[in-house]
From TrEMBL:
Protein name: Alpha/beta hydrolase
SUPFAM superfamilies: alpha/beta-Hydrolases
Length: 151
């Protein structure tokens, strides 16, 4: 299993209390654009091209409502820690080096193989599709089981 850069939004994990969920959702319900801008900024390392951030913002803020707020609600109500407890297969997380925190590595390093990458922002699969494909191919190759020899 592979995850593409989610460890910088550490405040989302583990599951939030109902009060915390409502506080987070209030931001998006009252000013969806401001909430989205915060997400874009939070997922962009220092030095990210402002035009690129603006493009991500415009695409994300254009989501029809209430679908946008409901997608955020699904995210903030999700309990990643509970999900990880149920997973038996190895999980590799490709995380942006400049965004990942020591806390994330300490919290999840025993359950996830965290591979630090320098391929752009939170949206690195879009920014660097070839680099992302190489990372994924490396995981697939490492997980491949050699065929049984024929007698």
């Amino acid at each position: 299993m592979v995850a593409l850069d989610a460890l910088h939004y550490l405040s989302l994990f583990p599951a939030m209390s109902e009060e915390q969920v409502e506080g987070m959702l209030r931001v998006f319900r009252e000013d969806f654009a401001a909430g989205v801008r915060g997400l874009v900024e939070g997922g962009s390392p220092e030095g990210t091209d402002p035009a690129l951030k603006d493009a991500y913002f415009e695409k994300m803020v254009a989501v029809r409502q209430p679908a946008g707020v409901r997608s955020i609600e699904g995210l903030v109500r999700w309990d990643m820690d509970a999900a990880l407890r149920e997973i038996r297969q190895p999980v590799t997380v490709f995380a942006i080096r400049e965004l990942v925190t020591r806390e994330a590595i300490e919290r999840y390093g025993d359950r996830l193989e965290i591979v630090l990458v320098e391929l752009g922002s939170h949206h690195f699969p879009v920014e660097s599709p070839e680099g992302t494909a190489e990372l994924l191919a490396g995981v697939v190759a490492a997980e491949a089981v050699p065929p049984e020899p024929t007698p």
